[in-house]
Amino acid sequence: MDSSRKIFAVDSFEGLPAPRQEDSIPRMGGKTHYVEGMFKETSYAQLQYLLEIWGKNQRVRLIKGFFEDVLPPAFPASKQFSMVILDSDQYSGTKFGLEFFYDRIPEGGMIFVDDYNGTYAEGVTVAVNEFLADKPEQMAQGGKTMWYCVKQG
Ligand SMILES: C[S@@+](CC[C@H](N)C(=O)[O-])C[C@H]1O[C@@H](n2cnc3c(N)ncnc32)[C@H](O)[C@@H]1O
Fold first, then answer.
1. Is 100 touching ligand 1 by the criterion CB < 6 Å?
2. Where do the domains of the chain lie, and which CATH numbers do they carry?
3. Entry's InterPro entries (predicted)?
């Protein structure tokens, strides 16, 4: 938080989208742990207010909307990011996030994915494994639930 780099925080603020087949968990009879609308109580206005009183609202830009709708118009192909953290709990947001940001991260940049290989976020693991299947990067565990890879040249 004390660096001068700009931070973009993107969330629907309407909760999770509908889960997809890739999110279903075989040992739970194909049901999903994460359901549509989960986390919808998150408040854009409250977070914006906190950023303002912390004096961080110039550094952190909140973007409200589903990734698929708001990321393409917000950032051109030339925009680069040194670090991306994906924490969307599901297949669709993780897959789209990886597809959107991968080419926008330079060599040495980092992609963090929360809940990869986790107990309930089946779709996150599927999305990462699918996406990295033909890429040189490999995921490493960086914390209890946090995994990451470093972008290769
Ligand atoms: C576990 S919460 C994490 C929120 C935040 N990263 C945190 O740690 O407090 C998952 C969030 O992902 C958001 N989300 C999931 N898929 C999304 C998508 N496709 N577009 C925008 N937001 C999405 C949900 O709205 C939810 O707030």
1. no
2. 7-150 (3.40.50.150)
3. SAM-dependent_MTases_sf (IPR029063), TylF_MeTrfase (IPR008884)
